[in-house]
Automatic annotation (TrEMBL):
Database matches in PROSITE patterns: MFS
Protein name in UniProt: MFS family permease
Annotated source species: Novosphingobium capsulatum
InterPro entries found in the cross-reference section: MFS_dom, MFS_sugar_transport-like, MFS_trans_sf
Keyword terms, alphabetized: Cell membrane, Membrane, Transmembrane, Transmembrane helix, Transport
The keyword Transmembrane helix is annotated on this UniProt entry: yes
Transmembrane annotation, as ranges: 55-76, 88-109, 159-179, 191-208, 240-265, 277-299, 305-326, 333-356, 368-388, 400-418
Membrane topology, as annotated: Multi-pass membrane protein
Compartment annotation: Cell membrane
Alphabetized PANTHER family for the sequence: INNER MEMBRANE METABOLITE TRANSPORT PROTEIN YHJE, SHIKIMATE TRANSPORTER
Amino acid sequence: MTAPSHPLRQNARILAASLVGTAVEFYDFYIYATAAALVIGPLFFPAQAPEAQVLLSFMTFGLAFFARPVGAIAFGHFGDRVGRKSTLVASLMLMGGSTMLIAFLPTYAMAGPVAPALLCLLRFGQGFGLGGEWGGASLLAVENAPTGWEARFGAAPQLGAPLGFLFANGLFLILGLTLPEAAFASWGWRVPFLASAVLVLLGLWVRLKIGETAAFRAAQEAAPPPKVPVGRLMADHPGAVLAGIAGVVACFAIFYLATTFALSFATTKLGYAKQEFLAVQLAANFFLAAGIALAGWWADKRGPAAVLRVGAGLTALVGLVFGVGLGSGHLPLVFATLALALFVMGLVYGPLGAWLPTLYAVPVRYTGISIAFNVGGIIGGALAPFAAQALAQRGGTASVGLFLTVAGAVTLAGVVFAPKPAR
């Protein structure tokens, strides 16, 4: 008699489809975050005030976060009514297409104010597509998971974050090592945006070969889907929406302070070479992957809410040392600070794929987790680099980590006061 196959082997295509899509999401978002820290300001805004260029660059970075909730409602609507698979394919195409087109934009020197206007348009398109990506990828994994494996399957999309970061950071590092500064500023920064097309095609190839989730099919057979999922969501689960938003704040705050803000600060204020600090972040990224893997395993043993509470508490503690460690200028201490922060991020990011779906009923689940994830992203992600830059200018780096302390407290409150799991 043949032994049953291992759950990971049995569902390899499902896990690959959720992993690849999220890897593309983080690759696309992080190549822009890296470009925003290094070249977007000087290339797309007037040169009269260099510090204003940095702030305006981070504002374009934050714009996509405000587009994400709009995309979450739109893609959530179709994800709950039509299905997870087709919605995921559409979101990936919009996200990838917007990213690739950024490679062809004219600079401010070429087109004047038209250049930042087009940049903002494509950033909105990128964020709109991203609004439906993570929620669908998580449901694809969790709603196909065997009993007792929900958190480990739910961690698969999260592992796309360090993978996408690895590709994005590694490519910028290679370009920095092989191209003169003038060539990188002239055309080299465009290469990562073009390369996004390869990952998008891979993601589409995997996703077009999968079927619909069992949970969605069962919900469709039990009752017609809600005509307006977001309306049903707000009527039936208002407390869960607020709890879900709060629950994701910490992971976004850590990621963008330890990546975007840290890169900008280290290369402008601390004097590190671009490629040197990219290598430091690349090494610290492996601690994020370790944290996510640990969180997935631990959450299946203790429950995702329990792990998320621990991660939120640790986030608040990391905030007390983050600014001092980053601002020390001592490279081993800077690396240890980033590695610690990203490992703790794994503990607040890894359980989300399993925790958020428990808050919402299946007919409105795509909309619910997408709105929670993306609105929380505005609070924790869009504001993080901008707020940290302002705090650093006023009170030095010691005050920067307080943003993490507050973010950890917000996430802890969201998990503690979350309604009981929806049936």
